Task: structure prediction
Amino acid sequence: MKSFFIFFLPFLLLGNKSQTKNYLILIAPREFSEADFSTLQRNLSDVSLTIAALDTTPCLGDSEMVVKPHISIYHIDTLKYDLLIIVGGPGVLFYDGNKNLLPILNHFSRKGLVGLGMANLVLARSGILKDKPATTVRDIRAIKELKNFSVLYQDKPVVKTGKILTAPSVNKKLLLEISRLN
Result:
């Protein structure tokens, strides 16, 4: 009995460090980036992924991929997730100004937030990226939009500011930074 407590006491005091991480991936109802979504699914197979959207009706990607979200943005329990990844694509602008999404974005900006491509415009317009360095797709209008919202644009594959990562799309450097974030 004594050896049982000696062996398990460190686990009881320190907790289980090998707990599975829970990531939330937000996609648009239409025209989300299928390339980014698929790459995330392939490369984050060691974490639990939950797909969220406006509601749980099937979402259509930019090349006809159909994804059925697990939850709607109205039912997100932010305490359940370690990280929020917002997939880009033209459809992500649908979330621009969504008052239900703003508290979620604010929460994850302190915990772990990843914006991909056009999703960074939603983050900029929400004020999350104000006076912070960030990147987006290499499009002169998107870059101008970031600058209009006082974002310090950087032409890099990934920009990290605290717990916020921005990238034009999923890339190896971004995946490495995600693994370091939590």
Remarks:
- DSSP finds six helices and twelve strands in the chain.
- The helical segments are 2-14, 34-43, 102-111, 119-126, 140-148, 172-181.
- Confidence is low (pLDDT under 50) at residues 1-17.
